[in-house]
From TrEMBL:
Gene3D superfamilies hit by this protein: Annexin
Domain of life: Eukaryota
Alphabetized Pfam families for the sequence: Annexin
Subcellular location as annotated: Zymogen granule membrane
Keyword Signal attached: no
Keyword Calcium: yes
PANTHER family: ANNEXIN, ANNEXIN A5
Annotated source species: Oncorhynchus kisutch
GO MF annotations, alphabetized: calcium ion binding; calcium-dependent phospholipid binding; phosphatidylserine binding
Protein name in the entry: Annexin
Domain text: A pair of annexin repeats may form one binding site for calcium and phospholipid.
Length: 316
């Protein structure tokens, strides 16, 4: 996946110089938003952390605090997200999704089904360090039923169990768990979809298609509902293609009346250094329009300009 991001580390990088550019952009009357967004979207996250440290050394102030003081609205949210280290951004998103009244299931589903096994381990450790809490306990305390059960399995790091050669057995189990009998055995769906490596899941899907005559997603749509259905679909889609999953997530964040800015920001920031070029290609393929034109039509102002810089090009 290396090099598939739209944002890359700057070649001739000088943290002190960048810190000065940002300081000048915020000094005096008015703020130079253009300079801020152009600089931050053309530096990698680790370079942004170095700029933050240099800013503190040179000016004795917290860069993120100053940015928050100068900027506002969705543009501010986007810039603060860009300044947050990736793992910390994930754990903060998860914490915000869990705490308070109600659970933002969308965030739990997106992060836990799309991150790699190593990232899930790092997220769990960082969550404990940051909030002095156990992520699994927080998730189980805030969710219920089969939905909770699958989230816990995903948290316990996917793809660890053996059974790579048994896709035939699993496709039969899934078929009898779903379509073949009246009622659905969600437990079977959960155990098989939650515990297998990506390569293995793809083989299971192909075998299932042969046996049942339709895709796994169709079966999930018909046989399950609510949060569990959304989570199972996300797991299947991410096993097939993570960039295509995010292309679809972005599409639905902007579809219809109103924009789900939280999701739009989260995906654009968290994938900008990972696979944004692939997401753009999949967006074009799946929705017959470019991600660039969707953002252009759905957002405005500095927020739009910054998102388009993260998008990094138009595939019209």
């Amino acid at each position: 996946m290396a090099g598939r991001g739209s944002v890359r580390a700057s070649g001739n990088f000088n943290a002190n110089q960048d810190a000065e550019i940002l300081y000048k952009a915020m000094k005096g009357l008015g703020t130079d938003e253009d300079s801020i967004m152009k600089l931050l979207t053309s530096r990698s996250n680790s370079q942004r952390q170095q700029i933050k440290a240099a800013y503190k050394t040179l000016h004795g102030k917290d860069l993120v605090g100053d940015l928050k003081g100068e900027l506002g609205g969705k543009f501010e949210t986007l810039v603060v997200a860009l300044m947050t280290p990736p793992i910390l951004y994930d754990v903060t998103s998860l914490r915000n999704a869990i705490k308070g009244a109600g659970t933002d299931e969308k965030v739990l589903i997106e992060i836990l089904s799309s991150r790699t096994a190593q990232q899930i381990k790092d997220i769990t450790a960082a969550y404990r360090q940051e909030f002095n809490k156990n992520l699994e306990e927080d998730v189980t305390g805030d969710t219920s039923g089969h939905f909770r059960r699958l989230l816990v399995i995903l948290l316990q790091v996917r793809g660890q169990r053996s059974g790579e050669h048994r896709s035939g057995i699993y496709r039969c189990t899934l078929f009898s768990a779903g379509e073949k009998k009246f009622g659905t055995d969600e437990e079977q769906f959960i155990t098989i979809l939650g515990n297998r490596s990506t390569e293995h899941l793809r083989r299971v899907f192909a075998a299932y298609m042969k046996l049942a005559g339709y895709e796994m997603e169709e079966s999930i749509q018909r046989e399950t509902s609510g949060g569990l259905r959304d989570l199972l679909l996300a797991v299947v889609k991410c096993a097939r293609s993570v960039p295509a999953y995010f292309a679809e997530t972005l599409y639905y964040s902007m579809k219809g009346a109103g924009t789900d800015d939280q999701t739009l920001i989260r995906v654009m920031v968290s994938r900008s250094e990972v696979d944004m070029l692939d997401i753009r290609a999949d967006y074009r393929r799946l929705f017959a329009k470019s991600l660039h034109s969707a953002i252009q039509g759905d957002t405005s102002g500095d927020y739009r300009k910054a998102l388009l810089l993260l998008c990094g090009g138009n595939d019209a």
